[in-house]
Protein 1
Amino acid sequence: MTRVAVLAGGQSLERQVSLRSGARVREALERLDHDVIAIDVGPDLVQRLHETRPDVAFVALHGRDGEDGTVQEILELVGVPYTASGPSACMRCMDKVLAKHALRDAGLPTPDFYAFSQTAFESLGAAQALPAIEERLDFPVVVKPAAQGSALGIRFAPTAAEVPAAIVAAFSYDTKVLLERHVTGRELAVSVLDGPDGPAALPIVEAIPRGGDHYDFEARYEIGSTDFVCPADLDAGTTTRAQALALDAYRVLGCYGFARVDLMLDEQTGEPTVLEANAIPGLTETSLLPQAAEAAGISFAAFVERVLDLALARTAAETNAG
Amino acid sequence: MTIDETPRGPGRSGETPGMGRSRTTASDLERYAGLFARRTQGMKSSAMRDMMAITARPEVISLAGGLPDTTTFPAEDVAALMARVAADASARALQYGPTEGLDELKACIVRVMAEEGMDVDAEDLLITTGGQQVIDLVCKTLVDPGDVILAEGPTYPGAVPTFSAYEADVVQIEMDDDGMRIDALEETLDRLDREGRTPKFIYTVPTFHNPAGVTMSLERRHRLVQIAAERELLVLEDNPYGLLRYEGEPLPPLYALDRGEYVIYLGTFSKILSPGLRLGWTAAPRPVLDKLNLGKQGSDLCSSTFAQYFVIEYFAQRDWRDLLVRLRELYLRRRDTMFDALAEHLPDESRWTRPGGGLFVWATLPEYIDTSDLLARALRDHVAFVPGRAAFLDGRGGSSMRLNFAGVGEDDLREGIRRIGKVVREQVRLYSTLTGTAPATKRAADTERTGSQPRERADAPDPTESGARVLPLRRRAAGER
């Protein structure tokens, strides 16, 4: 029996989703007869970790603090092994701009983009560059906050007139935004799970929005507004290429344990391209990674167990190496 | 490499030994989802609601709630009344009661309604579990899936999930500072008539509207009950705030004008006593009332007997209007504090309603600001409000917000509005930078208005609006839902 602290909640906008992920993880751990400590992450996090002395922490946090490396740094400091990616991979995944630069530098496909800080607009006259950007990216332009999960703050600007309001909206979530070329096509989520033989891509989930609406926050967590097909109805070659790309992205970003890579299958080229990677994807009943794991014959409990083993193995390896 | 591309049955094969109890898998969820009624598809736990959950953090100044101030009611009074109920009526208070409610409580309600000029027969009353249950029961009684409900735009956000649960087709009628626009209502009724559709009822909060903060004029009240009678339509008059008037002369409720022919009245103790009691009531035409009663039997048999005895005791031992006097004084000061803070901190292109009562101000920002996104930014500065979209079923309201001035103290009100002003100004400035336009300059002198008139502060006339005093609510385009 292992003493596991499940870290969930926190202060991010995805608090509720995180609580649902955390509750599910806790339930699975209890069924596996582990000693489970639930920690709603707040100002007393370090104190709670000192008091409860868990053998390992399962990080079920999404968004700011939890998914951006902050909590991982604290866990390293306190010396508690933890699940999933380390601080640097978390930082890269959480910041879409960093992630896209890393992918592009590694030669992996990701839609063209330009990123700006609020300062660039306010002090450096970046607004003057907007027409040139819009010309290069074509419309609709996708406007995103650099660091926000769950599709909050993502806007499609169909014309130049709508770009400024979309940028203002995106800056509600972060001090950095990106303008990205819109790729039409099929939306694919490829979850990656580590194992004894290294990371492997799980069956692909395709998100098919009902009623033609794009894949938004509402749809992502609710039954009924988006249909999820797993495994996605793709030819073998496309499946292999999409899975290989997700694995490459996982490695380039330095992920560990598990992650989910969101792709677009470009309608024009037929090739997948990386939109973003989630270092701690949702683990709720409707989340995509658990669905993909199940399609691979891995139950949620088995997934949780494997992820815990990986966390302990990483620490053991580091200890031996040191 | 890939683990497996073949989906297997509801994932038992990969389970660790001893894992037989593992249940909550995605396929299980699909199995439950297959059992859900169609109407649950309209029930959503939205991103906005998830965001609102964060507003409950102690460091957040929340102007988002619909809460009255419950500290005004002295705790020793509550204790004394509760003790009396326990001592005098223990066995009865712990027992079920009649579905329609206790006669003694109905007598209290007759007094409350008389205070607003309504003459109601106790026989026409049904006591409910909060006013919210009236909305639910009326929908349950009248609405088949696809039926039309007419409501104001914006409408009470708490009614939205109820309307959705009954799969109603809600058509929202625009408002101005005199409440629901009756000309727009008639146009809509004519259009629906041509389409062969009869709305089941018109839902309205005529006095100190939640969230719009406006009050329906007397002329429109007369016209509305006339239309209801002519077209034989029911009106659900939701009146939680009528007695919370801080200035101006009271207007007769629709129920008083129509004498209960076509108006179903919704009253509540939530805002004049306590929302924690969960006691409201309806007065309705007898055939409707009978159905509402049957509906209530199915819902909860009866409302809390203990709470009913508490209110009866309260009316017997105290002058119930004393608390109202205190609440009015308190809320008036808070309202004026909010008005001052709004004038000081919101940028010039903003406008807001100036309610003469109730709990809410409806503020509208420049159209390029999305208040749902703005809430995310505002939460970083620890302040919260209700984004305007919550009051619409069709995606409108994006640049508006509801602000509650009654639930927090004056210092917090000032600080909360200051913080909101700060983030709004930040976005206005950013937008100006992005579009290369200068933000509008402050107008020299704002004319003070009283009562329920919205205050116009825009420098340039908005071409989408028909008049300077019209609330900035976009018109519904043809075919838009």
Protein 2
Amino acid sequence: MLTQIRGMSVIYLLISISIVVAVAFFIAFIVAVKSGQYDDDYTPSVRILFDDEIKKTKNNIIQTTEEKQI
Amino acid sequence: MRIDNCFHCGLDIIEEEQIIFDEKGFCCNGCKTVYEIFSLNDLTCYYDFEKSPGATPLDINGKYDFLDNETIVSKLLEFQENDTAIVSLNIPHIHCSSCIWILENLSRLQNGISTSQVNFPEKTVRVIFNPEKVTLKSIVCLLSLIGYEPYISLENYETGKQNIDRSLTYKLGLAFFCFGNIMLLSFPEYFEIKEFWLDNYRPFFRWLIFALSLPAFFYSASGYYVSAYKSIKSRMLNIDIPIALGIVIFFIRSTFDIIMDYGSGFFDSLTGLIFFMLLGKMFQIKTYSFLSFERDFKSYFPIAITKINENNSEESIPVYDIEKGNRLLIRNQELIPVDGILISDKAEIDYSFVTGEAIPITKKSGDKIFAGGKQIGKVIEMEVLHTISQSYLTQLWSNDVFQKKVEQKHKNITDRISRYFTPILLLIAFLGFGYWIFIDANIAFNVFTAVLIVACPCALALTAPFTMGNVLRILGKQKFYLKNALVIEQLAKVDTIVFDKTGTITTNKKSNISYEGETLSEENLVIVKNVLRASNHPLSRMLYDFLPEMKRIKLEDFEEITGKGIRAKIGDNQIQIGSGDFVLNGYPIKGESDKSEDAIFQTAVHIKINEKYCGKFIFNNQYREGLSALFRDLSHNYQIKVLSGDNEGERSALENLLPKGTELVFNQKPEQKLEFIKKLQEEGKNVMMVGDGLNDSGALAQSNIGISISENVNVFSPACDAILDANEFQKMNYFLKLSKKAITTIKMSFVLSLLYNLVGLSFAVTGNLLPLVAAIIMPLSTITIVSFVTLMSNYYAKNLKK
């Protein structure tokens, strides 16, 4: 009986940790919003498809997905 | 490789003008130059992302000289230090991934630019550069050179960095965080199994839940308390009162429950409710960030103008610094920013945007010219009479209409319903309380709070945002951009539609020219065309473009008489082209007398060859496609009126085109248009104004709903409630119908949510509302309501006749 109760107190620790983790993610979200990441949700999706280096040959044509009509 | 379309801009290539470069066909030198720049800098990837993404660069000679002025530049910059400066430029041409790519690679084209970042939805590029190495002017010129000319207007002056309001995102994120965690922590309680460990840890769980609900209750829901307080103060019952009341009762009751150890409280439903309602608010806000609905003359006006100093040197000065008596230089296509007197010999001024007059006006030296007109043709000089704030055009903005807040104008449908809802709700709560108080005081308290909790008009409050938000998106896809969701309700209420003529039901793009009189021989046509070629008068230019391509002959004698016409000599032929008075010398034309009234107002160019009158070219307005069909459909349900700043010349043409009973009013000044709308409103009409130019802006602001028609939605449109792409003009009836259906959908969904409330209330008044029941009913009603309104509005959008 006694061991059972002592074993159960670990739940305080577990719940506290889980809340701390959740709060950490929440803070990350706030920081992301504050830095303006959510202001433009379209351009980054296009930008990520560009190659870093500029090719001198134009042989491989990059097909982009259908354009969003604005 | 297809040759018929320009490799750079995609326009059709006229065969004789085609330029072949690097095995690719271009329509003009400008396009070729852009390609050359890109290929020299290894930037031809530009053409890989999108086919023919470019725009032909326009001639910008001298246009951006004002950027040499330090004070103007510093007002445009967002940030400036020794070796770093940041500027955000609005570029209307941004439309595809190629645009993003090339603009973000600007640093490769211009030394001194460190980074550039595109915001696609806003159509802006943010450039960080080193002002010691490169000037703002050279960046702007570079952009113009590659076909991405920035739009710089007075609006950009002194704006600096705007603060973006992100509080709704924070509130929503916080509510979701609280809601999710509370849901997880409440799970053990849902099953309420009498277990040893559960009983042991119950207080810990409950107080943790309580702590988690605090931020949602105090911060996320704060908007509702404020709004409820305001509406009580102004003695109007809006929907936020029962919502705020519900939330507060929810919280008090739940806190009471855990303190007294009666149960776990309703914190899960409480935070869930806050979350869903904020989600609805978020969904309703669909902003078209590349559009602006609040524009006044400022975004139409240039930021600077060329001033001529006393020693004849030229200088760019900000338009706000213009003083009375200054001498200004106005170039081709430049806007006249202030009222003044023309010094140069003559000027052709296009007032179409200000007065609605379609044809440019000729002014002579010494004539008064008004702000807002566009100079066409040669460079002119003028002397300033009034400063910018005292000019005729800008004074329109001091009218009261522009001062009042739009939000105050109408009361929305949810608020109207809640006027009945709130008293009934309170009545039920008190009746339940009154009944139970004689049996058990504890239950009576429970019932009272349970009624207010369960009837909290969550579903009711969600209906409108989700329907409107959805319709807003559907309309936006069809190029009808609304300022906000409230506009839909206003659209549905409209019973009178007032159209502006020039630019709204006619297009500015092309004029329809017809010929009346003796048929001109081929030989005579060649003569006419060649005479016109020498003239710079706008009508001559239009007619010249209209006549077919012909061979060129040398003029022997040419004389242009300002405001009258041209006298010229080719070979042995004497030609006179021009206004009626000038060509006819007062002699009436045969057969003209019977319809002389029309003829007076007509815009026409008369032709006389060798002292013999031939006939006249008449400039008709080109009406939009589908105009008469649209008016016929609209006239079944709406009163239609047409206002015009133009003269009566088109009256008979319009009467033929439009259904009988359409009221036509001509010669309307901007203030008269405003008064016209006001008068209709005083008669109890809900007026929708459809206009396009600055001359309509007063009427657009005064009307219940102002729609501005725009050939190019990115450029200027006056302040309004909605912007409609000119190509979708004929769909207007469909948009109006859809808005009515949106209101029907909302009403149906209100019935549905009332049914839910009845079920919930039956639990509540009998004193049986368990946390678990609340936790089921609440999300269930939310989900069904949201899916119902989405499905219905999509169904209507698809099945209504376009």
